[in-house]
């Protein structure tokens, strides 16, 4: 019997991977591999088992993805999250279109069209939103200067980072750091 790859929406961090592994383990299923957005199984799941897993996954905020377009959308969002938050891509300035084309094995124009149709925003806008959320995180940690954050996040200068940050959040990085309550979003809500 052939292996099966299961696609799961809202897997955005290492803790999500651990939670999904536990859900499968508790169901008596040992995956071959669990990564952001996917679980590789030795053999296909029976429908009853799949339905049961679907219910448990939904209790934890995950969702099984069955259709091809939704799977591709999830691959795109996962690739952007990996790139921005976990440094999965090449260091320094990244060509987003080349990175996503390579990661998703499709031409960028079709990825961009699908993403815009299904999410109602461009991949670039989503990428910027993820970058700004990561910058907010780094500002909260207060371990790096704005200049170091700009360098780490691939901005051409601290002024470019500050300008983009202000256009998205309405605040400068310094004003954001001064807030008592810092509005951070979960990655699946960006």
Automatic annotation (TrEMBL):
KW Membrane (keyword) present: no
GO molecular function terms listed in the Swiss-Prot or TrEMBL record: DNA-binding transcription factor activity; sequence-specific DNA binding
Source organism, top-level taxon: Bacteria
Chain coiled-coil ranges: none
Keyword set, alphabetical order: DNA-binding, Transcription, Transcription regulation
PROSITE patterns named among the record's database cross-references: HTH_ARAC_FAMILY_1, HTH_ARAC_FAMILY_2
Domain HTH araC/xylS-type: 109-179
The UniProt record lists the keyword Ribonucleoprotein: no
TM regions (residue ranges): none
Cited SUPFAM superfamilies: Homeodomain-like
PANTHER family, sorted: ARAC-FAMILY TRANSCRIPTIONAL REGULATOR, HTH-TYPE TRANSCRIPTIONAL ACTIVATOR RHAS
UniProt name for this protein: Helix-turn-helix transcriptional regulator
Species the sequence originates in: Candidatus Cryptobacteroides faecipullorum
